[in-house]
Specification:
846 residues; 21 helices; eight-stranded mixed β-sheet; disordered N terminus
Length: 846
């Protein structure tokens, strides 16, 4: 047959086939229309899959926009295009079919689909409703309903969908299977379609593969049982956008049509590394940096989110670095050290770090010094007066208030109650505090001096001789690079020179969130690491919330999706029962999976009790840890009631029944015991404290695999820096939360390239109502309006609203108020509690 005759026969055959379709089409012609994908709805990463299985929309990691247009080989199909907008759980699509079966006899039909869905990475479901408009008298197209599912495991996928014709008894079923023997670089797929009334011999099938030979390039091919072949070439041009072209060939190899697609928002992250543009994301760290946020009305930055953001910038080839604004940043010493490690890791990935400051204190300067370029406001100052730690001694204030004080101290360094029993520090307390300050200063000074390329002796001289430096002095001394506002720092970021001095240590980035080129293409649920927070005093229903936290640990241990547990402990301790409740759950959990602890600003006494049973304990050099000891004390109404006009009287049965009873203050609802302890009662208290201490020592010795004599030698209530804790065996690794998460992934034997998902908890709740609770502190000074807002995690007084609380006219910090509340609420019970050690870096309390 001549070639022209062959072509004419092919054209006539296509015209006849489509003409037949025009007369009979009610449900979609799946084999023909799904050529828009080439692959299958269950395996595709394009939002176009939702037109054929609505679960495919919810199965994508992002929503997006899609547009395609078709160029037919014959004059039959004209003006055929598709547009989709998807928000994953709610999507909408339009397909226009244009036909020209007879010269100048054109007609069009538009098919509309709206879909809803949900689910997780492992299983998504979807429901869609479709209807048509246009010349539907020429091409019947009925209303229809589709219900679909997509199941995805790491190496395989299964998609199913049933479509019902709502105008006549008819339906269509589709099933597809995908396999990934080598991960997302190669996908094998097959599908089968059965319409109502068809026999199993009439099932139409297809099979093919999609290959990513190199990041940024996708090649796919599919062959159908009808003999047609589809080929596709896709090219990604940034993280979320791609273009593609595919052709449909007849069984004889002739082109039937070509389809061109543009998609934005789909999870393709391939060619961004080829762009020459170098972006510098900006991070404004104004305000407090906290661990968790309330679900409503809380926009504070969180530590984990910030660490993840910096890690993502390290993975972004289009990012040249990061620009930080530290003006009015409420970041404590320990968190500043963790961020510095993360930024040093960012520099190790080849990114530049630019930091702007205006009035930095010593800890802020430590953080800023990691930068390649440090900008200081021309009117700013640098405060490097050093570090100090002191506390308020309330003995005389309590005497004036008429409060009796009895300190129960039986261990050398367990000095927490000194605030109430003395007017100055004891020698053991002075010793341990001085050691802390020396350790902290060495870390800070060495970090700054090394980064700024100066001997530490030179930095020490600046600290001791000048203390506070004006802007020009700071630049001349080499502590900053440039003077100017934040806008000047922004404009100069791209041309800033890289710092040549090395970082003493840096966090390892890129290990936790997987390969950015393939992460979004992965199938199935990612392995989870539970990140649980134990923040604040050790109490049952506040602070660490012992009941709720222990339940969260138990649930994480039982969850097969959770491969490891990381507890972030930032607690000065408190009551023994909630501390041990958490410790027991930690011990039980590590029999099932790796359990690690990341210690924050303070994880001492009860804070160490909840840490000790972990497989691995990680602390920063600026962490306060240890304080293995037990303490107690008694505050009672000596003459306080007389001064405010309150009296107490009652009856009892039992010699000690009235021990904890006394006057109750209106409004605040706090009770003050009416009498001191008898000698017999005090002896019993001493016995219980010594028993609890021996139990504490034995449990630490067993958990840390140390002799009890060793634990007692580093115990006796002494606090240690994270550095010293590492040396004496209380801590396993020096690092922050990110280090702990990396170690958890390794301990859980999660493959290096596999992304992990973080499950955080327990939730702090919807809104913060703690500021509305009345407090005793302030009332002791005759001023209930002076009650402070409750402290949350490590935040300093500087970020707390309300009046400054007082005791007998002496102003108290929030930490001191919480400490006093712990003592009062203990009702004479032994406590594993460390006093608030607040390290002052010149202008800021941390």
């Amino acid at each position: 047959m001549p070639r022209s005759a062959s072509g004419s026969a092919l054209a006539l055959g296509v015209v006849f086939g489509v003409a037949t379709t025009l007369q009979a089409q009610r449900l979609p012609d799946y084999p023909h229309e799904s050529n828009l994908l080439v692959d299958t709805p269950g395996t595709t990463s394009s939002i176009a899959g939702g037109l054929f299985n609505p679960a495919a929309w919810a199965a994508q990691t992002t929503g997006g926009l899609f547009f395609s247009w078709e160029d037919a080989a014959t004059s039959l199909d004209r003006n055929t295009w598709t547009a989709i907008v998807s928000a994953r759980r709610f999507s909408f699509g339009v397909r226009q079919f244009g036909f020209e079966p007879v010269a100048k006899d054109r007609f069009r039909v538009r098919d509309y689909t709206i879909g809803v869905g949900g689910g997780r990475r492992a299983h998504a479901w979807g429901l869609s409703y479709s209807w048509a408009a246009g010349d539907i008298d020429r091409m019947p197209r009925h209303e229809r309903l589709a219900l679909g599912d997509v199941y995805r495991w790491r190496w395989a996928s299964l998609g199913t969908v049933t479509t019902w014709d709502l105008e006549r008894r008819d339906n269509l079923g589709e099933m597809d299977l995908g396999l990934r023997p080598f991960g997302p670089r190669l996908t094998l797929f097959a599908d089968a379609v059965l319409e109502h009334g068809d026999s199993f011999e009439d099932i139409r099938t297809g099979y093919g593969l999609e290959v990513h030979p190199t990041p940024g390039l996708a090649i796919a091919a599919k062959m159908r049982s009808t003999g047609e072949v589809s080929l596709r070439l896709g090219l990604a041009f940034d993280r979320n956008s791609w273009i593609g072209m595919h052709a449909q060939l007849s069984d004889g190899g002739d082109r039937l049509s070509s389809t061109y697609t543009v998609e934005a928002g789909a999870p393709h992250a391939f060619l961004s590394g080829l762009t020459r543009q170098r972006r510098y994301p900006e991070l404004d760290l104004r305000g407090p940096l906290v661990y968790q946020r309330y679900k409503l009305f809380d926009r504070r930055a969180t530590l984990l989110a910030l660490l993840r953001r910096l890690d993502a910038i390290g993975d972004d080839p289009a990012a040249g670095g990061v620009l930080l604004n530290l003006s009015d940043a409420g970041i404590g010493a320990e968190m500043a050290w963790e961020l510095r490690q993360q930024l040093a890791g960012l520099r190790a990935r080849g990114k530049k770090v630019i930091v702007y400051v205006d009035t930095p204190s010593l800890f802020q300067l430590m953080l800023a010094s990691v930068a390649d370029q440090v900008w200081l406001d021309p009117e700013g100052t640098v405060d490097i007066r050093g570090l100090a730690a002191g506390r308020t001694y309330m003995r005389h204030a309590l005497e004036k208030a008429g409060i009796g004080v009895d300190e129960w101290r039986f261990f050398t360094y367990k000095s927490a109650f000194e605030s109430y029993s003395r007017d100055s520090a004891s020698e053991p307390d002075r010793e341990q505090r001085q050691a802390l300050i020396d350790d902290f200063y060495q870390v800070v000074a060495a970090s700054i001096a090394s980064a700024r390329g100066m001997p530490q002796s030179q930095f020490d001289a600046l600290t001791n001789s000048k203390g506070i430096l004006m802007a020009e002095e700071a630049r001349a001394a080499g502590l900053v690079d440039s003077l100017g506002g934040f806008e000047a720092a922004r404009k100069a970021a791209a041309r800033a020179a890289r710092r040549v001095t090395p970082d003493a240590s840096a966090e390892v980035l890129g290990d936790l969130q997987g390969d950015p080129m393939w992460r979004d293409q992965e199938w199935g649920e990612f392995p989870q690491i539970a990140v649980l927070y134990a923040i604040g005093p050790c109490a049952m229903d506040e602070g660490i919330r012992g009941r709720e936290l222990s339940k969260a640990i138990h649930a994480a241990a039982a969850d097969r999706h959770v491969k490891a547990i990381v507890l972030r402990a930032d607690s000065p301790g408190g009551a023994i029962l909630p501390s041990d409740l958490v410790a027991r759950e930690m011990q039980a959990a590590k029999r099932k999976k790796p359990v690690l602890v990341s210690q924050g600003r303070v994880a001492a006494s009860g804070g160490y009790w909840i840490s000790m049973n972990a497989d691995t304990i990680v602390a920063s050099p600026l962490t306060i840890t240890g304080s293995i000891g037990v303490i107690g004390g008694w505050l009672w109404n000596k003459t306080f009631g007389d001064k405010i006009g309150f009296d107490y009287d009652g009856v009892k049965r039992g010699e000690h029944a009235d021990l904890e009873l006394g006057i109750t203050l209106p409004l605040v609802g706090e009770m003050i015991p009416d009498r001191a302890l008898t000698a017999e009662e005090r002896d019993r208290i001493e016995q219980s404290i010594r028993i609890e201490y021996r139990d504490f020592v034995a449990k630490v010795a067993a958990a840390r695999r140390l002799p009890e004599s060793t634990v007692d030698g580093i115990g006796q209530g002494r606090v240690w820096s994270g550095t010293r804790g590492h040396e004496n065996g209380l801590v396993d690794e020096i690092g922050g939360l990110w280090t702990t998460l990396r170690l958890a992934k390794q301990a859980a034997k999660i493959p290096a390239g596999r992304p992990v998902q973080f499950m955080t908890g327990p939730s702090p709740g919807l809104v913060d109502l703690s500021g509305w609770r009345p407090r005793l502190i302030g009332a002791l000074a005759g001023d209930t309006a002076g009650a402070p807002h409750a402290i949350r995690s490590e935040e300093s007084d500087a970020v707390r609203g309300g009046s400054t609380p007082t005791l007998g006219g002496v102003p108290l910090s929030v930490a001191e108020c919480d400490f006093l509340r712990q003592i009062l609420h203990a009702n004479g019970q032994p406590l594993v509690l460390v006093d608030p050690i607040e390290v002052q870096d010149g202008a800021h309390d941390r």
